[in-house]
Structure formats: structure tokens, C-alpha cells
Amino acid sequence: LEILVTILNENDNSPVFAQPNLTRDVPEDTKVDTAIVAREELSATDADLDTIYYELTTTVQDTDGYFAIRGDNNPEIYLQKALDYDKFNSTTLLLYARDRPVTSPDNTHTATATITIIIKQSDTRAPWFLPCDYLHNDTSVCISSPYSGRVNISEMSTDPLLLEPGPIYAVDPDYTISDRIVYSIVGGNTDGVFSVGADTGNLTMNKIVTSPDSFLLQVMATQVSNVRKYSVATVEIKVINKSDYPPYFEKGIYNGTVFVGLPRRSFVYQAGDPSTPLMITAVDEDFPDV
User: Which of 30, 27, 86, 81 has its CA nearest to residue 58?
Assistant: First the structure.
């Protein structure tokens, strides 16, 4: 008598990941839909030869939706949404492998792989001139004010010019890269009166100015290793007459009269002359017509 015995496979094994812990560096400017971790690196095996079902989650708040898998049975991880280093620079993903669908009532075995994603800052932004203010609290955009200064007519200054709100200075806002910045004047420098230090940003004079016309310079800050990343700031230089004398008040003491009960912004009148508003005036011998 021949007896045929068929061994039925029981689901008594759990899926196994070859690499339960993975780390990947992902550049900030990686294009959407790019594969981050290949299917071959993440596929789990099951001694029961069951079909494996995958699910991907994140453990870091506000990093949902950036990474996804290709499908329930394809664990390849790809970039689903553009990255921004200023929002987050790392996250931890959990990939679950099950030998039954999530909704199955059958006994299910599960394995877990941990994928650590490190975001690497890319050279995505042009230099910022300082000081600057963030635009609506957005740390990815910083708006600087124009620089301004002055020189005396017919006088040669040998020192770097003093500017407001400060010296010409720019930085690479991609601070983990922090590329070196060089400076150049690209406009408004009539007759080559001014020079800017390529490395320092100091603005100096090459020759005297003989007319009272102001200068509106355009100074460019360029990254050394990526010349396509640059910014331009304006520098207004006013040409003035040299001031040799301080201003002074025409009187040492001014006397005025004010009436009780007057509303705000009412005139103060000259003492002894209640019909003439009190005026306090100063003069400067450098500017006799002002």
C-alpha cells in the first residue's frame, strides 16, 4: 500500500531584512521621484515563501510625505516631495515587512527595518549682504538695505570709506558649505573713482572727485566655487563739501511762552510776543546759504 503524504506549510517564520539598519545621505536638491534606497537593499525574505507586504512610516514630526515606497510589494524608497534643509536635516523611517496584508485576520509576522536619512545642504542660494532681515520670518530669504556713504569734494581719502548700515559684507547662506565670497564693482563707477577689495569688500578711492554729483555703485558678491551664485547691492556715495566748522545756535538761551489748556501740537510762542512762534535756529559757517 502506497501512502502519499503532503506536508502543508505553516506560517511559522517571520520575514527577515538582510540589513535592518540603513543610513543614507540625501542632497537637498535631489529631484522628486529619485530612488533613495534600492529595492534590492530593502527586500525581506520569508522562509515560508509568503508574499511580503511593505509599509513605510516616519518617526520624526513634520517629515511626513517626503519619502514613500513604490508599492505594497515594492519597498524601493523614493523622494516624493522636494526637500528644504531649513525645515529639517534628518529623519528616521521605519519600513515594516509583513507576511500577510495589513487587513488580513490571519496570524501575521512582521519585521522592521530602520532607515536614517541625513539631508545634506546643497548650494541653492545666492550670497546675502549683511545686515539683512528675514522676509516674513522665512529664514530662506533675507532682505538687505542699500549701503550709503560720503566723500569730500576735491579730497582724496586713503582709508576705507565708512558706510551705513555697516561695511560691505556678504556670506554664503548655505552655511554648511560656506563658500568664499569675492567682491567687484559692476556698475556706477564713473571714471573709475572707487575700488573694492576683492576679498575684504572695503571700498576705497582711486582719485579725487571734482563735481558734487553722487555715485550709485553696484557691488557684486560672487561665490568662488560657483560663479553662477551671486548677488548685487547698491552703494550710494554722496559727494559733499568738507566740513571744517561745527554748527552753532544763534542764541545761547531761547525763551518761550505756552498757554494753559492748549491741545497737543500747538505752537510755543516767543516770550513777550504771543503772536510769533518760537523758532530755534542753528548755522554752520561751512554752509552759509543753508
Answer: 81
Q: Are 112 and 22 in contact, with CB atoms under 8 Å apart?
A: no
What pLDDT was estimated at residue 243?
A: 77
The one-letter amino acid at 68: A
This prediction has a pTM of 0.72
pLDDT digits (tens, 9 = 90+) for 69-117: 999 999 999 999 999 998 999 999 999 999 999 888 888 999 999 999 9
H, E, C per residue of the chain: CCCCCCCCCCCCCCCEECCCEEEEEEECCCCCCCEEECHHHHCEECCCCCCCEEEEEECCCCCCCCEEEEECCEEEEEECCCCCCCCCCEEEEEEEEECCCCCCCCCCCEEEEEEEEEEECCCCCCCEECCEEEECCEEEEEEECCEEEEEECCCCCCCCCCCECCCCCEECCCCCCCCCEEEEEEECCHHHCEEECCCCCCEEECCCCCCCCCEEEEEEEEECCCCCCEEEEEEEEEEECCCCCCCEECCCCCCEECCCCCCCCCCCEECCEEEEECCCCEECCCCCCC
Domains (ranges, CATH) in the chain?
16-120 (2.60.40.60), 128-240 (2.60.40.60), 246-289 (no CATH)
Would you give the end-to-end CA distance of the chain in angstroms?
A: 129
* Cell numbers standing for residue 65: 510625505
Mean pLDDT estimate for the chain: 94
